[in-house]
Design goal:
The complex is a heterodimer of chains A (402) and B (295).
Chain A (H helix, E strand, L loop, with lengths): L3 E2 L10 H7 L15 H21 L7 E4 L2 H15 L5 E5 L4 H12 L3 E5 L9 H7 L4 E5 L13 H10 L3 E5 L18 E5 L10 E5 L25 H39 L3 E3 L10 E6 L4 H10 L2 E2 L1 E2 L12 H5 L4 H4 L2 E5 L6 H21 L3 E2 L2 E2 L3 H4 L6
Parallel strand pairs in A: 1-11, 3-4, 3-5, 5-6, 6-7
Antiparallel strand pairs in A: 2-8, 7-8, 9-10, 10-13, 12-13, 14-15
Helix pairs in contact in A: 1-7, 2-7, 7-11, 8-11
Chain B lengths: L5 H8 L12 E7 L4 E9 L6 E9 L2 H14 L4 H5 L3 H7 L8 H18 L13 E3 L4 E2 H11 L4 H8 L9 H12 L9 H7 L12 H21 L2 E9 L2 E8 L6 H17 L4 E4 H5 L2
The chains are: A alpha/beta (402), B alpha+beta (295).
The complex binds pyridoxal-5'-phosphate (PLP) and FE2/S2 (inorganic) cluster (FES).
Chain lengths: 402, 295
Amino acid sequence: MKPIYMDNNATTACDPAVVEAMLPFFTEQFGNASSIHSFGAQVGKALKEARIKVQNLLGAAHDSEIVFNSCGTESDSTAILSAIRAQPERRTIITTVVEHPAILTLCDQLEKEGYVVHKLKVSKKGRVDLDEYKSLLNDRVAIVSIMWANNETGTIFPVEEMAEMAHEKGIMFHTDAVQAVGKLAIDLKTTKIDMLSLSGHKLHAPKGIGVLYLRRNTRFRPLLRGGHQERGRRAGTENSAAIVGLGVACDLAQQHMEAENTTVKRLRDRLERGILAKVKNAFVNGDTLYRLPNTASIAFEYVEGEGILLLLNRQGIAASSGSACTSGSLEPSHVMRAMGIPYTAAHGTIRFSLSRYNTAEEVDRVIAAVPPIIAQLRKLSPYWSGEGPVANPDQAFKPEYA
Amino acid sequence: MWDYSEKVREHFFNPRNSGPLDNANGTGDVGSIKCGDALRLMLKVNPESEIIEDAHFQTFGCGSAIASSSALTEIIKGKTVDEALKVSNQDIADYLDGLPPEKMHCSVMGREALQAAVANYRGEVWSDDHEEGDLVCKCFAIDAVMIEDTVRANGLRTREEVTNFTKAGGGCSACHEKIEDVLIAVNGRLYNSEPTPKKAAAAMPSESPVKPKLTNYQRIRKIEDTLEAIRPMLQRDHGDVTLVEVEGKKIYVALSGACQGCQMESATLGGIQHKLVEALGELVQVLPVGALANH
Ligand SMILES: Cc1ncc(COP(=O)(O)O)c(C=O)c1O
Ligand code: FES
């Protein structure tokens, strides 16, 4: 049976049109865009076209605001490190507890180096408290970095409003929009967002290509210094094939934006309803009102996520787990913990993330596959007995130590 | 996905002996839903022969936790209680043709459940009373408190030494920076990760020809003196060590008190071995006395 891929928040398949556009840049179009000869000039022209396509998808005012680099993580690091280096008198960073490790791990390191990091807490639904946010804005803050949409739950944050608030106080605003670009309509020129991170492999472009959007006149310090590529803002010979691929992917994303928010969304909703109708003690995580159209995060109580993934994988279904056991950690993901999802459910959270390549037949196959898998694992669980959880799971299972 | 062996996959997809066991007379619960791993082991022991006639498990946990539980029940069925207690977490991992380093804690949990179930059968209370700190090394489930204690007790200076004593850092390497943080917290600074000159000599004992060969008597005296020097440190943790047998490069010791059977045991043995290697100037292996009875 054909495998079903529902892990598009982890990475996506390259669109065939993207691959096709890239191929010549590995062969005849191998020039260095900086060279004076015709080999270089052709590549330079292709990069310029790609830059405009990215600009259009983001609604940026100028194509020079697009800085190509290697990945979303690099964009995140560049944005935050630039802000604190360009404004050494400001030593505070505001972010949230549910950011991607690309932000959180960096902030933890900066904290060790003496910076003050405020991580906004989130509610059960994953929302931040704007009053708390407002109270933290002052002239010691170097940068605010808030993700546009969360990778695990799909919850969307009000970054446009939060950027306005930061702007009023003269504070730089960055958003990690790695999950949002291509799924949500974005028009940066009408916002007060100063920097934005994008990663190609989340929107059907290849891995290893990223973009930092840098609003004109934003104070900036490069992460990599060297050659004059990207106007001195990111040294290193351009990854021309990947940049061209990203350009095509941005065009395609724009064409499919409508479908993403109608067809894909309907498939996601059908998947959620179908599973919840057949599995009890299961619920959807995150903010179901403000959410990416492709993401379903479902908590199955009293089972552990890795087992579910292994059994799904055996039937050719690829999803991912909200428990971090797949990364070697015993803790459920920081996002689930931050939302106060009980441990009984956080460990059994599965994320299905769809794309325009998924079909209704695939959704129905997953709906049919999930309930027996959950039943099978619950049968093994000491917290489950017969048709429901054991009474008082906390007491029924009594380790000598916990 | 994890690089699980065929055997792990097979035991996960077709677990043996799962579900409740009627008439169980020994039950051990370890872990908790909070940790993401919880295992209940149920034994039916024949009170006359002390043979484990049946063993079942219920596990909440990842694929390798379920496979380890299944393997454990298969290993111990038909064994006497005493024989079963000799099953180590390594035996469980070996039975499954190995576990990824990050998942070794699953086999440790299996062994703990076994100890708890036997204690329950014997009417004893089994407890693991280690103080738990922040998990530093996920591969070997070793927390900050344990690393700190080991660093203090043995005057460790480098990350390599911490790995030799506690195993922390010996798997995927992701925790090396955190281990260095603990070293800085204890020692006030981070020493260069080059071994200190004295240690360097000890690390290559076979290549130091100047050392005169010890007679058998001198050698055993030296072992005893070394253990004597370590003893106060163990006693502080309510444990003790005695020398039982020396067979060439294998030195068998008996650990007692708090060190016995707990997670600290292998760390303690590792620490003793390190000291003995240093004192004797030769590579030796320190083994628990149980290993002597095995052959
Ligand atoms: C929200 C978010 N930020 C950053 C990243 C990192 O992107 P990249 O893999 O391109 O470094 C990811 C991808 O997992 C993400 O989901
Ligand atoms: S976490 Fe893998 S070696 Fe410590």
